[in-house]
Amino acid sequence: MTRIQTFAGILCIALLCIAPAMGAGEPVSAIDNYNNAVDLASAGEYEEALVAVDAALSSNANFTLALATKSGILSAMERYDEALAAADAAIISNPDMVYGYVTRANALVGLGRNEEAVAAAESALERDPENLDARIILGTAFGNLGMYERELEFSEEALALSPGDSRALSNKAYAEFMLSGKTPEPTPAPLSLLPLFGGIALLCLLRQR
């Protein structure tokens, strides 16, 4: 069993819930463009989604949720430097919004900067102690650092919040395997599973009213 260090596959986490107050007061056109970006990204149309989210940001460059979502889209496109810049802009716009830190952590994992990813994900948990995605990213980052006990710890915490979550189960299985002392053997994984082993390609998809 090997950990596949690639982001070739995309696992979209579509958080299709309403985020009250987030984006409140944004122009209707910005919200419409933002929601269009969410729909396009959910369908895997990342180039078009990026155009739509940029249109939302053209109405308000500090539309924090759109900045975080742009970061997620760029990570899905494996454009991690740009994803990091968008996440940082979201944090500057609203230092209290958890998904700026979640998408920052995700981009940093994509860049192989796992220590920094841990710090960003921990910042997310400081703002939202029940955040599932931050725990999954922490598990992935610790696993990439060879800290399998910590990966197992956060995977189990994630599963306590969301039993059966495929990402947490994958991280947990990998950590347990590495802690078992068995010799890893190269085994191909289906494309759909690549991000489960290589990291999380996270899309912060929150629709607006």
Tags for this model:
209 residues, disordered N terminus, Serine Threonine Protein Phosphatase 5, Tetratricopeptide repeat, mainly alpha, 10 helices
Please, could you describe this protein's structure?
The structure is a single chain. The protein is mainly alpha-helical. It has helices at 28-42, 46-59, 64-76, 80-93, 98-110, 114-127, 132-144, 148-161, 166-179, 194-198. The protein is built from ten helices and no strands. The protein is elongated, with a radius of gyration of 17 Å.
Shape: elongated
Query: What is the count of helical runs?
Result: 10
- Structural class of the secondary elements? mainly alpha
Q: Give the N-terminus to C-terminus distance in angstroms.
A: 45 Å
Chain-wise SSE layout:
Elements: H1 28-42, H2 46-59, H3 64-76, H4 80-93, H5 98-110, H6 114-127, H7 132-144, H8 148-161, H9 166-179, H10 194-198
Summarize the entry for a quick read:
The protein has one domain (28-198): Serine Threonine Protein Phosphatase 5, Tetratricopeptide repeat. 62% of the residues lie in helices and 0% in strands.
